[in-house]
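F.,

This is the one I mentioned.
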């Protein structure tokens, strides 16, 4: 990987942006740029749950930051072209172009919120790289919560009602972002959204459901413990007990015994 010279990088990115409204040419030029800065000496290493499964160029973060910084005004001023470019890059075979696509989507102007949600629904599908989906959710959730939280809630509710457990998983991970950014006086809505699922918690969703509990507890400990008590009263299946046991270490020391008793 060559050393990053900011002046040279800026010139390279400026040339790349000449193809902003030509997705195919932009993609080829982007591949050349990323290949130029690729770290070929770095070994792939052992895959973990936090590792993308796609091929990677492994460029320095400064390269991606420069692209994002310089393309931001284009995305604001020309949302239709930015959306088309993001769509093209999302289907790339490498991780970094798809990472950039998620970022471009989050840079669209406020009036493009429907465009953002449409792409989010189309991209966040079962079978996609979990790491990429989580990045996509992280980037777009903040944008949608800022400009149209009701629209983001509608997307989450649709996912949570889906018959696919994989899609429900995506919905629960999106719900975590929703909870973290929701105004305190609207937190009851988050409990309402998630309540139907843990009544008979599927093993596949246990980890995601527990992440939601952790997000809820961080915002409102008392309400979350009460919520768990209500769940325990509705159904005492082996799956529910397993779910509650997993929640013990997610709450504060003062509440752990209460949750532990619920799981017995």
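My design for it:
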């Amino acid at each position: 990987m060559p050393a990053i010279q900011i002046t040279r990088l800026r010139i390279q990115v400026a040339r790349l942006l000449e193809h902003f409204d030509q997705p195919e040419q932009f993609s080829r030029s982007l591949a050349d740029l990323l290949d130029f800065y690729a770290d070929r000496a770095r070994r792939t290493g052992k895959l973990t749950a936090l590792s993308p499964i796609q091929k990677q160029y492994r460029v320095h973060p400064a390269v991606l930051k420069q692209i994002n910084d310089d393309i931001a005004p284009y995305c604001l001023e020309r949302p239709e072209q930015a959306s088309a470019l993001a769509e093209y890059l999302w289907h790339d075979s490498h991780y970094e172009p798809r990472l950039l696509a998620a970022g471009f989507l989050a840079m669209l102007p406020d009036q493009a919120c429907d465009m953002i949600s449409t792409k989010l629904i189309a991209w966040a599908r079962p079978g996609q790289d979990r790491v990429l989906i989580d990045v996509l959710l992280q980037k777009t959730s903040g944008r949608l919560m800022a400009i149209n939280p009701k629209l983001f809630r509608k997307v989450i509710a649709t996912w949570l009602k889906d018959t696919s457990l994989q899609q429900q998983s995506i919905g629960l991970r999106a719900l975590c972002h929703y909870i973290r950014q929701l105004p305190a006086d609207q937190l009851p809505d988050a409990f309402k959204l998630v309540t139907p699922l843990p009544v008979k918690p599927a093993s596949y969703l246990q980890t995601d459901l527990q992440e939601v509990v952790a997000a809820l507890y961080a915002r409102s400990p008392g309400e979350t413990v009460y919520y768990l008590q209500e769940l325990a009263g509705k159904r005492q299946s082996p799956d529910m007990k397993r779910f509650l046991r997993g929640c013990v270490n997610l709450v504060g020391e003062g509440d752990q015994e209460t949750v532990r008793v619920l799981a017995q």
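DSSP finds 14 helices and no strands in the chain.

Talk soon.
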